[in-house]
Amino acid sequence: MLGQKLQQKLLQKLSPQQIQMIKLLEVPTLQIEERIKKELEENPALEEGQEEESMITSPDEEEERTEETDKDKDEFTLDDYMDEDDIPEYRLQSNNYSKDDDKRTEIPFSVGSSFHEYLESQLGLRYLTDKQQILGEYILGNIDEDGYLRRELENIVDDLAFLQNVDTTEEEIEEVLMIIQDMEPEGVGARTLQECLLIQLRKRDDSSPDIVNAIKILDCCFEEFSKRHYEKIIAKLGLSETELKAAIDEILKLNPKPGGGYNDPYNRSAQQIIPDFILEQSEDGFDLHLNSRNMPELRLSPDYNEMLKTYSSTNGNNKKEMKEAVQFVKQKIDAARWFIDAIKQRQNTLLLTMNAILSYQNDYFQEGDETKLRPMVLKDVAEMTGLDISTVSRVANSKYIQTHFGIFPLKYFFSEGLQTDSGEEVSTREIKKILGECIGGEDKRRPLTDEKLTDILQEKGYQIARRTVAKYREQLNIPVARLRKEI
């Protein structure tokens, strides 16, 4: 049965300034500089320099601005803007990070030519027919960021026929692919990991026993090699344990992702970390400040402010042209003011959050002793600051702090807690450190299983389940025992 029903609903709306602040909140220092530069270029009412007292607008407009700000405060909460999809994936309250993870999360600063541009430049140096050039370019377009050709040759033939009206065969594609596989980096254009490794070994032009055995292993026993069934390889190829180890050492020197060094946005050879916070020790404790670097002070343009006053006081404001001029100037001034306020709010929120982290982890920041890191999740910082959990998450995402003992991402200081037999709460970082030490000192011929690692940790007094050990091991990027086995 259909019916009508009246319902009252209170909707909260964000002002443009608040939306800008939220978006700017998670932007790191390097990108905020670019964002400010872009805003300066696009808005003539915004310029560099200190704000002057004389730049206050008319009393009526100032009163209107104050009322709008108060209204925005009443109707604003971050929950209205953010949903679960807005919270960064890493979920600070449930993940921990190793030092290796920290290296992978460094902020890219500069990049060279792209991987595909590098391949195209090499292709241009080969003697190819016009048709081979077309085939080569299409193949390169299908090579993924790891350097592999994942698309079947049969499908490439069909693509060329339908999309480019090029009639070709798998044999012709294979011929051009061989040319590409002869290019740098070694292993590029391979269709499988096995082919990738074999390409690299065969380009060595080395007939030493170790290389010959390595090729045999990959060619005839790749499945056994990938599963580390070394006894089966020895039996199948008639190798001694010493010969097998020497051959495997050669294989392990190869690059399983030829394109990785070019496409990795965190390539250490082409990056530089720009810290967002600078922490210095002083006699009175700590001195924390934002890294202002190349960030200029912003103000409203005096010329635009004066222009608005002139237009507003000019007789004949009813004229269409004059109204449009006033509207344009006011729009630019409002946009500039919103941006200045958003930047200030961003700075205040960043400092508020970092000061809370500094207070919570005070013992750690004294010396940088990792064992003194207390269990801390997003909620802890949110409660200390009065900020929303999503806001804390945005601040912690992609931000770095420079201390007297190194540069760290803010998410480094977050971890879960775990109780010992004595009831003491310890950081999961401490558990992971012990876990890493146990695996680092294990007998690689008989690596420790997750069950054995659980027993070791429980013997040390840590109340932990096997599935939790497996989760922490995976977060440390450590494979299962079977894949850690060595000869």
How would you characterize the overall build of this protein?
This protein is an alpha+beta fold. Helices cover 53% and strands 7% of the residues. The strands form three sheets. Strands 3-2-5-6 form a four-stranded mixed sheet, covered by helices on one side. The protein has a two-stranded antiparallel sheet with strand order 1-4. A hairpin with a 2-residue loop joins β5 and β6. The radius of gyration is 31 Å and the shape is flat.
Which structural traits does this protein have?
487 residues; single chain; two-stranded antiparallel sheet; alpha+beta
Helix content: 40-55%
Task: Give the amount of beta strand, in percent.
Answer: 5-15%
Q: How many individual helices?
A: 24
* SSE-based structural type: alpha+beta
Residue-averaged pLDDT:
78
Shape: flat
Amino- and carboxy-terminal Cα gap: 75 Å
Biggest beta sheet summary = 4 strands, mixed
**Number of DSSP-assigned strands:** 8
Strand order of the largest sheet: 3-2-5-6
Task: Write the SSE topology.
Blueprint: H1 16-25, H2 29-42, E1 46-48, H3 59-75, H4 78-81, H5 99-104, H6 115-123, H7 130-141, H8 153-163, H9 170-181, H10 193-202, H11 209-220, H12 222-226, H13 230-237, H14 241-252, H15 260-263, E2 277-282, E3 285-290, E4 298-300, H16 302-313, H17 320-360, H18 362-367, H19 378-385, H20 389-396, E5 400-403, E6 406-409, E7 417-419, E8 425-427, H21 428-440, H22 450-459, H23 466-475, H24 481-484
Parallel strand pairs: 2-5
Antiparallel strand pairs: 1-4, 2-3, 5-6, 7-8
Helix pairs in contact: 1-17, 6-7, 7-9, 10-11, 11-14, 16-17, 17-19, 19-20, 22-23
